[in-house]
Hints:
alpha/beta; Rossmann fold; 8-stranded mixed beta sheet; globular
Amino acid sequence: MMRVVLGRSLPLLGLLAVAACTDIQLGAANLIETVDVPRTEVAYGDGPRQRMDVYRALDRAGAPLSAPAPVVVFVHGGSWQSGSKDDYAWVGKALAQSGFVAVLPNYGLMPDTRFPAFVDDVARAVAQVKTRAAEWGGDTARVVLMGHSAGAQLAALVSYDPRYLAKQGITPDALGGFVGLSGPYDFVFDTELLQRTFAGPKEREYDALPVHFVTPRSLRTLLVMGEDDETVNPRNTRSLAATLRKAQVPVEELWVPGAHGVSVGAFARISRGESDIVRRIVSFVRATPSRHP
Length: 293
């Protein structure tokens, strides 16, 4: 298993300075994202954090698309103990401007919510998207799950371990793909944070690692990783990619210069126009085949 280095969550205003991956700070991205994108907050459960923001897909002229658009569910990071959909409004707007319906769910956080309950939150949000995306101009048959950092681990578990979506009456086959940004997928529980979040019986620790649930039926996958990431060890991405290839699952890797924030920072307004990361993700989502429950 691979080692993940995940310290306490970095404040958004300092993340990019530490990561040294773009010319702006991630925390300032909302301030410079001036395009007005229709947004609706939707509850997917009764809990205070069981809410998600939906951004309508726009055409090149900035008008809502009339045809059903692919849907991207983006799960934020924060070391399983911090973060909010509100912090990543700029990601939702960027995806909407790329012609996709973007859904950004919140989920329960440590210490009030423990593993695997926060994974169940993401699965419940995905099930709501599959049911209701048409209300928001989305194509319910073309849904891609994407996450950054700890959010990538949660999204990967929902994508690869069928037990989470089974509780919602669907299977991962209902999804069109998984995009992992700088995620921990195969790690040992060697920090206080990881032990507090996941450690316990061997079965519990086994269940926390997405790499254990890859099968030949797993979703097509795109993995994006900064070559200089010191927050999540890049070997996590190499391990998952190798496991997917061994199972003959279609997988793409994109390695880029930069640290932990580079993969998600590409969606910031001043970065995405020239970003190979955004181009590859947009291409991956547009190529999503129709998948039904």
